[in-house]
Amino acid sequence: MVNPILIKKDDNPAFTPSKNAKRLFQAVYYAQNPPVEAPKDIPLLSVSEIVSKMAFYYEKIRNTVEYKEEHLLRKNAIERILKRQIVIERAASPGSKGVEIARHLLTELIRAAYLPNNIIPETKIDEFGKVIDKYVSLRRYAVEDYNSLQIKEKNALTNWIIALAASDLEERLGRSQVNLVIVDYMYQTLLDNISLDDVGEHETDREIQIFVAIHRSYLKFDRDMVSYILLKYFHPDWQQAGEEEIAYVGKNILAIKKAIDDQIDHPLASQLNRIVTRYTVFFQILNDVIANNPVKVYESFYQDPKAFSRMIKQAAGKRYREAKSKLWRAAVRSILYIFITKSFLAFILEIPATRLFGEEINPISLFINVTFPAVLLFLIVLFSRMPTEANSLKIIEGVREVVFEENKRKEPYRLRKPVKRSTFSSSLFGVIYAITFFLSFGAVVWALNAIHFSAVSIIIFLFFLALVSFFSIRIRKNARDLLILPPKESALSFIADFFYVPIVSAGKWLSENFSKVNVFVFILDFIIEAPFKVFVAITEEWTRYVKERKDEIV
Asked: Fewer C-beta within 10 Å: the chain N or C terminus?
């Protein structure tokens, strides 16, 4: 039951918490004090603890050679397993059913420690099996109705459908009730605080764009997970879809995908993201404060109104420390990923290519090429800007705004109409950007030539310079998102951005395309993973058999 203290107080405090704030207090209290239920005698999915260690360490190795954000690891693992089961292994056995794939999927997730052992009920297999059958049918309808598509386009469509399936299954593994309340709380708050009156034809997209921005910012959904949210928006009955609706979606899949992509790449998305990111910080801190002691925090509104602000400041300080810790963890993972990849390219590609072109191997350039990317990333993280005291005061102000009726925002944020540049100005800016691109990389090439780098060494150095520059932006995102106060601009920072942005943009392009041809991932996915998983399964069956024989003897 919800603690009566959280709903009983009807005296007027110094500040009045809103209905949504009270609902959040109750949700947090309920999450911390769930009702005690009698244990149910139902079969649970179980795997060998010893054998699972092999799968666990395999996942650790794989996640090192393919950099992905931590909160997406399980969803990405689901997608990878589905792709292997549906596209590769299931092709050899057309009679396979979703329930068989679901059993393999859940077992592998437990072995790799993405799910707890002896906790997931076996009934989850049937639930997941029906979901997988739905997406297998969707894929069949989609591919059959678009025979004119090229092989590459069909493969891309298949990958997108499997990504939707992974997002669907990830959602069915459970969402925090507190997070669901916060998403609704944020949505109601931002509906009141964001106006699209001045953006003309985009006014009709306000609600869905706010909803998407919350999932992208607060829940950290990636593009595939947002696509799944939008699929449910366009087809509200999709989770319980029958064959008729699956066939309809499949036959119109390209139009539906375009509608989803248009919403994800909406002209107002960047403006909305900046606003929603601020409110994400407010709600994260608010959740931290309440979770510490919901009853005590609620009572502080009546007994000591200033205590709430002190709690917010303390929670913000803790967030700063956690962000710094996560920053270093992400940096270590990135450094390992870059160092392994860089060393591989240096000794497999750089040395043979240098000899092939009749050039001498320069030990200094080889050493710089191997160590510089990791050192550069380390230095960037070391000197990353962290939030200040003034930032904490802004967070206090923002949290009070969303909690108390008296502090509600008076004027909504008004989004500007997206700028439509003329052909001339777009061309002019494009030329200037191209000039800065060549100047930036040209200066680096000149410096490397001066210390006698070979052509091959220069190309590899530029490749990793761009990649590290992009990685540094990405891994600092969590810490940067806590900054409510915009950074002060100076002439030096303006010039630095002017020449640094082209390098970061090149790094983003390389990261997106290099991941598609990552030789380590290819080897792990297509050469090692399938036989390794078979070996793990056989080992577990053997372990179970030995245990049964031992029990018979006893």
From this structure: C
144 and 79 in one domain? yes
**CA nearest 472: which of 443, 521, 515, 511?**
511
Range of the domain at 402: 279-517
Q: How many domains does the chain have?
A: 2
Phi and psi based region of residue 482 (left: phi greater than 0; alpha: psi -120 to 50; beta: remaining): alpha
**Where does 451-525 have alpha helices with state H?**
455-475, 477-481, 491-514, 519-522
Q: Does residue 552 lie in a domain region?
A: no
Model-level pTM? 0.79
Evaluate whether 142 touches 116 at the Cβ level (below 8 Å).
Answer: no
Same domain for 263 and 298?
Answer: no
